[in-house]
Amino acid sequence: MSAGGYPPAISFQSVSKSYPSSRGLKGERFLALDSVDLEIQPGEFFGLLGPNGAGKTTLITILAGLTQASSGRVSVMGHDVQTDFAAARRALGVVPQELVFDPFFNVREALVFQSGYFSVRHNAAWIDELLESLGLTDKAHANMRALSGGMKRRVLVALALVHKPPVIVLDEPTAGVDVELRQTLWHFIAKLNKQGHTVLLTTHYLEEAEALCGRIAMLKTGKVVALDSTSALLSSASGNVLRCTVDGELPAELASKARVTGRVVQLPAVDALAVEHYLTQIRQAGLTVRDIEIRRPDLEDVFLQVMNQHPGRDDRSLV
Ligand SMILES: Nc1ncnc2c1ncn2[C@@H]1O[C@H](COP(=O)(O)OP(=O)(O)OP(=O)(O)O)[C@@H](O)[C@H]1O
Ligand SMILES: [Mg+2]
């Protein structure tokens, strides 16, 4: 229970999940989640971050009751996802990572059908609002098969929200989505969060997580390796970052420390001396440096620091 006596919106207690190992060795299991403990309170906007394969979707699939944890307890608004499945499922709206949909319906029919699944009647006004808010009004009668990838993702968001669930889970909702829809989507989700809906978001766009989430958990190889408020995570990052553009390939020693995007190089710098040292090394390599900027670390820098502090191969196999 939280301080106010309410159950958490989402609770994972010592959740582990193993799958048969893909190496095909008889009896060998792969540990996708390793004793995950997380509690998300009602009204939070919470970010779940981690590299590919960290276990984010597995955690969400367990939350939605679609997969069973190997051990541990999971609940939504106090309802156990196994023993009280119907109530837990009703409290939850999940936007899945994969584009799955029924090809026989048009958009509005799919939303009406989904309302029926949750026994919500007279839902036309809310369906209209969802279509409007997600820029789908003119696609209401289009068949799902005829929609573009980004449009399908909008429909998945609408489907997840059709029963106005108190807890909204978005598994990479902006993958493959254009800039305009991202803004529309975040505006809408932030509005729902202000109205009291709890939001759990996974994304690889760390600037989105930094802007939206009040608290963040980072997952690596099935374990929680960081959990704090976004502001505490940002201030935990040491030093500054040197950002500049260079006209060629960095020397190997620097490249191993840098975030490189095309010509833009970003290097963590403890102090001014480190900045000078980097610039000298770059110049000595015969490169020209332009557009020098020193900035505070952002969430992507923090993420990389955390992941580097928890090194190690992904060897989650159990025999
Ligand atoms: N049904 C399954 N059977 C076997 N292994 C699985 C299954 N589902 C997931 N895994 C494995 O569990 C690990 C975690 O996968 P998961 O999809 O949860 O990662 P993720 O953090 O969501 O990654 P991404 O950022 O790529 O979406 C991966 O190594 C994956 O191969
Ligand atoms: Mg995933």
UniProtKB/TrEMBL annotation:
Keywords: ATP-binding, Cell membrane, Membrane, Nodulation, Nucleotide-binding, Transport. Gene3D superfamilies: P-loop containing nucleotide triphosphate hydrolases. GO terms for molecular function: ATP binding. Residues 10-246 form the ABC transporter domain. Belongs to the ABC transporter superfamily. This is ABC transporter ATP-binding protein. It comes from Rhodoferax lithotrophicus.
